Task: inverse folding
């Protein structure tokens, strides 16, 4: 049974191209992880993977639509999943991006009950964190060192455009 989950929408104070560039390279996600969580995580431009409780879980970029969407699929996981990141312009505010995440997974009923709410909560937390960061606020649950690394990377990606 396919489970569809959509995050909340958030207006990030970055143009779509700026925000898109921070997510386009899977290696960028390594620096968003706390030091103690990086061990065993492997990434290249198109993929990122790790082992969690004995299960290898990987994500691979399926398609990039410049500055508007990045679609991903699983690359070796105990269940099939995928989704997309959306970077939509805000016509009334060209310096902002309407950002949201869509996710789908083949989960049995028990897995859906156990994981569905947690996945939605995590996706909403990512959206809230991006909005807070773009406004110069500390995202909930992120330490100052991680925030500094994230801001540096977003600035570096913007400089490469």
Result:
């Amino acid at each position: 049974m396919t489970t569809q989950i959509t995050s909340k929408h958030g207006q990030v104070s970055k143009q779509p191209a700026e925000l898109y560039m921070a997510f386009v390279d899977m290696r960028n996600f390594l620096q968003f992880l706390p030091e103690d969580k990086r061990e065993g995580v492997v990434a290249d431009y198109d993929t990122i993977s790790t082992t969690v409780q004995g299960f290898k879980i990987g994500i691979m970029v399926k398609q990039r639509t410049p500055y508007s969407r990045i679609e991903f699929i699983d690359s070796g996981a105990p269940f099939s999943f995928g989704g997309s990141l959306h970077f939509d312009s805000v016509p009334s505010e060209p310096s902002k991006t309407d950002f949201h995440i869509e996710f789908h997974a083949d989960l049995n009923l028990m897995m859906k009950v156990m994981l569905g709410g947690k996945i939605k909560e995590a996706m909403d937390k990512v959206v809230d964190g991006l909005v807070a960061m773009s406004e110069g606020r500390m995202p909930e649950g992120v330490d100052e060192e991680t925030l500094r690394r994230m801001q540096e990377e977003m600035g570096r990606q913007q400089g490469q455009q």
Observations:
- Residues 2-159 form a domain with the Alpha-D-Glucose-1,6-Bisphosphate; Chain A, domain 4 fold (CATH 3.30.530.20).
